[in-house]
Amino acid sequence: EAFESLLRFAENHTSSLFETAYRPMAKEAAEPVKELFTDISLYILGAETTVESAVLRFFDSLFPLVYSRLINPGITDLSEDYTECLRLTRQDINPFGRYSKNVVTELSKSLWASRMLSQALSLGIEVINTTEHAALTKECSKALVKMQYCPHCQGLTLIRPCVGYCLNVMRGCLASISELDAQWREYISTLEYLTNEMAASHDLEIALTGIRNSINEAILHAQLNGPQLSATVDKVCGQPRQQEGILSADNVVPVKEVTETQMFVMAHTSLNNKRREFINYMKRSRTFYASIAERLCDGDLVMRDSSTCWNGEDVV
């Protein structure tokens, strides 16, 4: 939920750039922005895709809009063929300069850690669910019956098992599960490493909210190089029809970057707190599979003080 909340915030944050700064293309830019964040979400969830392909596909879709609405706002004939030509040309003429590559670099680091954490959580759930329904052997079932109910045959319905006896039975029953101890400890250490990475150089919140500024810089770069881009596009794709009396690209001045500090801090703090709470909780379960017998032989199941208890053969 924290991931989804942050992604929604970053998507809205990015969309607001077009609504406030690049209004002529805001409506058409909504779909590419949505697709970008859908791809990011799918990548985090483990889909067979890459950050680079998602980002470059977004800039492929963005270039026809920037070219026809900002660089040459008089274009009226934006056919499918011409749009496709612009998309393909984007890869060759690199209208957005280094900024498109910067987005890939920044997102790749942070999304990798988030993807690994997401996959690790799924694995953890699978392990817990599998061991929760572990089958008991016949020997284990007999030992449990002997421990719990054999005193009843002597009329001793209130006598509980001795602690040592209970531990021996439970350890025998859970031998296969306790073998997971080393791997489970390593798993918790990996979770700890990933959450630390996400809070440091792979900060997801900073990377996602930084997409907006990077896109803004990329568009500005394309506008500054508008005449050269137009000359190259005309050679490759031909000249589309122009409508007279339209403002030139020079008159389209983007609004300065609007910072939504308060909303960002809330989203950032929310995920940070959840991540911290989660890893602290998980660290307490580091010895879970090693100490599972001790956990079961605790409380009302056994007699913990020096009173009489059942040792499997007699009352002692």
Automatic annotation (TrEMBL):
Q: Per UniProt, what is the membrane topology?
A: Lipid-anchor; GPI-anchor
> Which biological processes are named by the entry's GO terms?
cell migration; positive regulation of canonical Wnt signaling pathway; regulation of protein localization to membrane
Q: Where in the cell is it found?
A: Cell membrane
InterPro entries, sorted: Glypican, Glypican_CS
Task: Kindly report the protein's main subcellular placement as a broad class.
Answer: membrane
Gene Ontology CC terms, in alphabetical order: cell surface; extracellular region; plasma membrane; side of membrane
Top-level taxonomic group: Eukaryota
Keywords assigned by UniProt, alphabetized? Cell membrane, Glycoprotein, GPI-anchor, Heparan sulfate, Lipoprotein, Membrane, Proteoglycan, Signal
> Which family, according to the similarity comment?
Belongs to the glypican family.
State the protein's purpose. Cell surface proteoglycan.
| Name of the featured protein | GPC5 protein
Q: Which organism is it from?
A: Ramphastos sulfuratus
